[in-house]
User: Which sequence fits this backbone?
């Protein structure tokens, strides 16, 4: 195996946009991320399903399912 061809593996500080920080190991000394497990909606349980532009209503109108048919 060739010597001195691998990058140095060191401690790395990861900083999230929400302000959370944690330490891991990487070949670079610091990483800035947009979202982490402390602020991601899936992990926090605050996930919201947003109906953008009425797509659900448009689907229901197109295929003949109305709110009255559900009940």
Assistant:
């Amino acid at each position: 195996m060739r010597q001195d061809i691998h990058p140095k593996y060191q401690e790395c500080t990861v900083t999230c946009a929400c302000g959370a920080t944690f330490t891991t190991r990487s070949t670079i000394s610091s990483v800035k991320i947009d979202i982490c497990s402390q602020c991601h909606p899936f992990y926090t349980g605050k996930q919201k399903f947003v109906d953008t532009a009425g797509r659900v209503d448009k689907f229901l109108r197109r295929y003949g399912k109305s709110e009255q048919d559900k009940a």
